[in-house]
What we know:
64% of the residues lie in helices and 7% in strands. By secondary structure, the chain is an alpha+beta fold. Strands 6, 7, 8, 9 and 10 form a five-stranded antiparallel beta sheet that branches. It starts with a helix and ends in a 5-residue tail after the last helix.
Amino acid sequence: MRRLGRHTARNPIRIIIGWVVLVGVSLALAFGAFGPGLFSLLHTGAPAIPGSEAKIAFDKLEDANDSPETANLVITGLDLEDQEQVMGLMADFPEIRESIEDLPGVEGVLDPFLSPQGPMDPVSQPFLSVDADGFIVQAELADGISGSEQAAVEQRLREVPGELGVDGAAGEVSSTELLAASVLDQVKEDLLKGEVITVPISFLVMIVVFGGFIAAGLPIMGALASIATGLAVVWAAAFAIDIDSYIVNLLTIIGLALSIDYGLLVVSRYREELAHEMPLHRERAGKGRRDPAVVAAIETTVGTAGRTVLFSAITIAIAIAGLLFMRAPLLQAVSIAGSAVVLLAVLSAITLVPALLALLGRRLAKPSPITRIPGVGGLIRTVGDVTHEEGMFSRLARWVHRYPWPVMLVITAILATMAYPLLHVQLRSNPMDYIPDASDQRSYLNVVDEKFPLLQIPDVFIVADASAQDAQLWAVDLADDPLVDRMNPVSELDDGEHLISMKLNVDSQNAEALEYVRDLREHDPGFEKWVGGAGADMQDFTNAIVEGTPWAVGAVVVAVFVLLFLMTGSLVIPLKALVVNMLSLAASLGVTVLVFQDGYLSDFLNFRPQGGMEVIVIALVVAFGFGLAMDYEVFLIARVKEYWDKFQDNDLAVERGLQRSGRIITSAALIMMLVFTGLIFGDLIVIKEVGFALALTVLVDATLVRLLLVPATMTLLGKYNWWAPAPLRRLHERFGISEH
């Protein structure tokens, strides 16, 4: 790492040019300069598990369904009990139908006026609303219809209500493409909204932390570079694996937060080392060589802070890589792309940021002109980046030394209380939840759900390898269950299989509904069957997570133990870190359940409670949240270890280490919280939940845990913090990772 720092300090222009080229190519690829762009490669849908019962049922249904894709128009505001109005519609609608059928890519049009009897024909009933105030028009689309042709069909459908000659007639148009686009458009909007809000505020915070515009801008430049290259990585991954649309928001924000986090630590350490080196190197840069003080400062910075952030990034990447053990392609995609984004964030922090520092040289040692602004200078001196070994954080550590037991017990009790709501968490996973409430697609789904029961998406469907008679008899039995609101007619599929589908009178993700699905799967009707639907998908997804969790946790625990042992030479610190971080994570998730499942703050945060937590949110927050908690653990322990090696005094090491890292941890946490808060301003519920949970995780970890609980436990353990058996101590002496 020191050699990397020395090379970067002596060749900054080459490093910067390399990053400029990389960023330019990455943006060109991600935004479609050489082919399909990133957003065109994303998709949205249920988190299916290959080989699961729900996926088998869905595939069988898809294989048997030879009906074409449709663009649908739902019209309301009519009175179909008014015979005069009905006769007028029957007279006028054939011309409207013909104009739609003549459009390129349309194979046919279905509506309730096809039959000579019109709405009176039983065949027309699925197209009519239950209260006779509207109907549905379906335009059947040809295979291979182009995007522009489909857009023209959808636009023509939107014009139909105004041509009916009925005051108050209104309509909503929907299709599979429009439903997916509503989520994707929201992803883009939320991404822009979040970064427009958080990046400027983060920059202002860093101006105060660093005491100037130039120093504050360096982590932002590193962050923008890592985000651009991260988008290219996600773009490349999207060709090989399915990546859900909202994952881009999450990975972009994670990249932004970590890049700022790492850049903050690197720039802060550089200023500390520069202040130390300048008195030792009075001479400035000469012709053909770099300033020796700057080179020495960057070499030490990359060898110390650079090593720390690299260590932190590897730990976070390992935590995210644990998702690979889940049998869910969605989580595996997050694992691959997320790990790459984290490593890109640290790469920019240990190469691009030091290269920019080399160009700036001693300029960062000078006070910024903004420090002369009345009031601003005092604020910067209070919370800014100082290098004293005594201050607010060392005094806080000494206070904790005096009361370690009360501090540990109180903080543990607070965290346990925050975690309590996890005991009643209800998990859900329904892609329909992702449709924004304010979108016309949500309006369409609400109208269909309320007025067109025969066109609703069934809550439960069963593919039965049975005769029509046996399938019908079982469907009659199932219809008697009090949870079943409506049983659809049994229909024949391929190879003698039959489809049984139903609508429940409770939410498909409700505990009763999930129990009903489990009972269906366990029941033996005398023939083979496969149960699918939203509840079945959720069960299979949850089971995949549960099955993979022991392997994921085991791999992460082993990796964290090995890495922290190599860093500290202790077996106690890794164990303590795992326990404390899981408690911190549970506390954050508990409050998230209280807010999003139980509905507290729903008006303030502008969301509609779903009655449960998205199961994908729990998985993502555990992976990313644990990684971020380890991030601050590494920041703190790295500095404490420096002073332990120097003084062999545990309390003094904690005081000095906390003083040196406390400002960086709290500043980085504040900026990271702001970045994650940007996700909360969006309308996509899954992103809102993840943003809230991660922002809270950072807040809890950087305050209650890092500033109070960790110093308290380290005080109580004393020299035993650094204990390891003699053979392992010798192993660490030979292979351990040190900042010296």
